[in-house]
Amino acid sequence: MAAGGQGAPLVPLVDYLLLSDGKQGTAALNIGGIANVTVIPASAAADDVFGFDTGPGNMIMDGLARVLTHGRWHYDPNGRMASRGKVLEDVLARALLYPFFLKQPPRSAGREQFGEEYVKRVFLSRFPGARAEDLLRTANELTAVTIAGALRHFVFPRVGIARLVVSGGGAHNRLLLKRIGELLPEIKVATSDAFGLPVDAKEAIAFAVLADRTLHGLPGNLPAVTGARKTIVLGSVSRP
Fold first, then answer.
1. Which of the residue ranges 139-143, 177-181, 232-236 would you say has the lowest mean pLDDT?
2. What is the H or E stretch that residue 240 is in?
3. Is residue 46 classed exposed, middle or buried when 0-12, 13-18 and 19+ CB atoms within 10 A define those classes?
4. Rounded to whole angstroms, how far apart are CA atoms 59 and 32?
5. How far from the centroid of its chain's Cα atoms is residue 170's Cα?
6. Quick check: 233 and 11 in contact, CB under 8 A?
7. CA distance 26 to 228
């Protein structure tokens, strides 16, 4: 941020180091609270890589699960509750009007955009009688549609992509992965487990790599991703 960029996403450099391929373009999708994508063209140099936050990942679904189950669940395990519901088209259409989804990358999001206030305003206040399963199904669809839409609008016109590698907690949501695959039938969708990166540990691995780069005085950012003016060493080391 001191170099003029946004504070996230920071994982794309590590995605490039671990998932680049000489023959096919790769999109690395991490679905945490927020979903973000790293785009790695075939035979890419570091300067060719770009990435951005696509929008909500699990954040809206988790927020709904907490409210609708009165705190009994903090998430929807494997998308089970959502799989029993139906998409509420009016709710989905209203959610998709949010200006963030049309914003050109680089862009980043957080609770300021898709936290509790958004959940109440878009999902709960206007549709108080809706079934929990239907609201969760709609939130699941919102995540899938905005991920697919971001790839179609901001990635596919620039880079040929053959595979989407998914990690993060959202990779356990079977309904979500199914819908992403259905919305993007032209590319192969797989979890990062298939590439030796456990879906629950990839981000931890990434920050360990970034810490190592800082210790060795190596840059840890990609300006095309965050909008920074230049590559820089991230953070500072305070030794005891």
1. 232-236
2. none
3. middle
4. 8
5. 9
6. no
7. 23
